[in-house]
Design a protein that fits this description.
It contains seven helices and nine strands. It is of the alpha+beta class. The strands form three sheets. A four-stranded mixed beta sheet has the order 1-9-8-7. Strands 2-3-6 form a three-stranded antiparallel beta sheet. A two-stranded antiparallel ribbon has the order 4-5. A hairpin with a 5-residue loop joins β8 and β9. α3 packs across α4. It is globular, with a radius of gyration of 18 Å.
């Protein structure tokens, strides 16, 4: 398959802002039957992605990190900063609280093969597609790639 991402992506995806209440973003995902959304700031710049995986923390909760106590001191066996991020996702009320920051992106001019490789290597399901001005112009998902494969 020698198609570019621009030929396969979903153009002009629905986006949300970090300030949007989480319930509104969840409603958008459910109503549109999609699994993730790019998050853009007031300047239109991509600041994150919110996905079903990010929202699972709301339902599953978290477990305390393993630790040992020695002479009234607590020694964590895992990085406590990771635990703090998980708590923020569980208690989050806005998109910005639960979104994945620093999203991996692709250019609309790159090959579908590159997008497929990134999705596989990073174990993610969608990639925001950027233009030359670093603006979100689309989104490419595993489903988009499968549909392109079927049409060849």
């Amino acid at each position: 398959m020698n198609k570019t991402i621009a030929q396969v992506m979903t153009p002009t995806p629905i986006t949300v802002t970090p300030e949007m209440p989480l319930k509104e973003a969840i409603a958008i995902l459910a109503e549109n039957k999609i699994s993730g959304l790019p998050v853009i700031d007031e300047k239109g710049e991509l600041v994150g992605v919110i996905s079903e995986s990010d929202l699972m923390w709301q339902e599953t909760g978290i477990e305390a990190p393993p630790y040992i106590m020695i002479l009234d001191s607590i020694i964590y066996l895992q990085n406590p900063a990771k635990h703090d991020k998980e708590i923020q996702k569980v208690l989050g009320q806005t998109v910005g609280d639960v979104m994945s920051k620093k999203p991996i992106t692709v250019s609309c001019h790159e090959s579908v093969k590159k997008a497929a490789q990134l999705l596989h290597d990073k174990q993610i399901r969608r990639l925001p597609v950027m233009d030359e001005k670093e603006q979100v112009v689309g989104i490419i998902t595993q489903g988009d790639i499968i549909r392109a494969m079927a049409s060849d």
